[in-house]
Amino acid sequence: MSKQKGCRPGWFLRLLGYKKTQFLTIPLFSILCSLLAIAILILLIGKNPLTAFQSLLQGSGWLPKPNYAAGKSILTDLLEMLDAYTPMLFASLAVALAFKAGLFNIGVSGQMLLAGFVTTVLVGYQDFPAGLAKPLVVLLGFICGSLVGALIGFLKYRFNVNEVVSSIMLNYIIQYVVGFFIQTRYVDVVSRQSRTINAPARLTLVDVAWGGVKLRLPLLFIPAILMAVLLYFYLKSTVGGYELKAVGLNRQAARYAGIKVGKRLVSSMTLSGGLAGLAGVTYYLGYYASIKPNELASLGFDSIAVSLLGNSHPLGIIFSSLLITSLDKGSTYMNSTVGVRQEVSSLVTGMILLFSACSAYIRYKVDDSLRLSLAGSEGTAAPIQRKTPASGSGKRGKNA
Amino acid sequence: MNTMIIDGLSYALPLLIIACGGIFSERSGVTNLALEGFLGFGAFTGSLFVALTSSWFSNGSTVPMYLAFLFAMLGGGFYALLFALLCIKFRANQVIAGVVINILSVALTGFLTSQINSSVFGEASNKFQLGVSPRWTVPGLSQIPVLGAVFTKFYPFEILIVILVIFINYLLYKTRFGMHLRAAGDNPQAVDTAGISVAKVRFTAVVIAGMLAGLGGMCYAYSISTNFSPSIYFGAGYLAIAAMIFGNWKLMPTLAACLIFGLARSGAYQLVGYLKLSSNYTNLALAIPYVLTLLLLIFFSKTNRAPRALGEIYDKSKR
Lengths: 400, 319
Known about the structure:
The structure holds two protein chains of two kinds. Chain A contains 17 helices and two strands. Chain A starts with a helix and ends in a 15-residue tail after the last helix. In chain A, helix 6 (108-124) crosses helix 13, helix 10 crosses helix 12 and helix 13 runs parallel beside helix 15 (343-357). Chain A folds into two domains: 1-47 and 341-400, no CATH class; 70-339, ABC transporter involved in vitamin B12 uptake, BtuC, CATH 1.10.3470. The longest helix of chain A has 30 residues, at 130-159. Chain A is 70% helix and 3% strand. Chain B is globular. By secondary structure, chain B is mostly helical. In chain B, helix 2 (35-53) packs antiparallel against helix 3 (63-89) and helix 9 crosses helix 10. Chain B starts with a helix and ends in a 19-residue tail after the last helix. Chain B has a two-stranded antiparallel sheet.
């Protein structure tokens, strides 16, 4: 990192410093740094990082594998990845929306689980026709999630209960209570999970034969993308979105501006919970068709990171979820072909997040050294040049 | 009843020491959601030490256990450096950094455990086996009805934690360092004006938080599972955060919160056994402590006040 920046105010620095594209270049730079770090790690283990990354992409359906089993193709892998992507997108949007309102929704997993469980019982185990069951699942899932979200928001607004604590408590309560009901009433004795739901209620069409291969079709994939776009416009150009952001930026100022802060807190948490509910139904009644008792989906926590990687921006999240899901889905294939442990992919995720957490600092450093070097090239070129290379990863005073 | 107190304490005290880490960090003004990651990494280093050196000691020796606690503290503190660097030096959003640190810790320890197991020990396992911790009983005192349970079959680490907590109480409220720390969380400008580096105070606080959380993680590794595996990330860090906020960022109320968690949890187990319900009901019983906390929070949160500068990146030029 310091090597590239160390050269004169070169093309690289200027590219990173270009304000209009910084929203793109800085995250890409973070991703590049982390891939580099992981590549070194893989080299240390004694494997080829390039084949490892290639197999990651092959496993998640971006690149063709050398050979496929009968009835499978690159499309199978891609669609399976997109099937896992849909709940991730919903969950990350849920986190982002709450974050914009200055709230931290760490309870996405709990909201997902409750929504998944309630819809499984009320719709998944009934004999509704598909045309009725699917919309009902979506609607009920949204309602369940939003009720939990509303409760958290209400406790925050009415009783000053910290939303982080109440969401964590609710996570545990939901986990244990749902686990109890599954194990006493809805358990499948063989798999130790809840019984598989009836096909009409499932939000993913599995084994769709098309062109000689079997595919799965995540029905809510396109609606999820639309939802992200919708949220973008909601935040950008509606009164509600404006007020939500104002509350998130400065509660006091928002109150002075005449915004009903409590109402906004509750409503944004409700919406966030609803999105988490959608993530729950696409996860438990889409990607899977059953629920594992006593376990919260780790997706709910990963989505926090994904949302942050996307800078809590709905459109950014579309891409950050894609990246993280691809890494996750490709890891099994990487493990079996290259022999690099599956855990490496979560390590990549972790590293990407680590670097993107520093993105503000990187941006600041880039701007700083660019300014210095520009000043240098205009005036006395030679002496100030010495200063620029020092800008590696922070050798200056804390408030330089 | 006795079992409830014994188990309750062995669950509550590690939670308390983790929450103490949270108090250190948050009273100095650094929001700390990374406790879960600290405790996992601390437990990892401690367990790694035990796994690597197990052949050095005679069978049944308790020396590795005590050294494991030491190494867990070192490991937790070392890992906390990363968090401190992110939050203080790189001025990352503290909530974000905390979550990132947790995710990275799960990934890193999972990867390293498997990798070391396969390359050093030649085993395909994601666990490090630990020895069994001895449990002590004080003769005489343990005969007292009800209260005697406190002195019965406790883990050695419980004593360590009690001593540490007393020391922490002294450190936080009776020393200059403690005052600087608390001031850094409430009014960092004042600390700076007094000629003390806010960054240094916060850095120290976060590293102490990492050490304490690491110790707590190691305790859980010994008391709950006698091995290190990814199941160490069962949410104790988050629970400790809840206890700390519930305790209004003060030591004694946090202790109370931890005891409620621990006793309600072990009590729930006992209740299921006592009523001769099927083991499925344990789940329902396990939810009780959390419902209880939520209800208590509703009543007690009105007066809750976080440190004023909590979560704010210190900016010298700000008024």
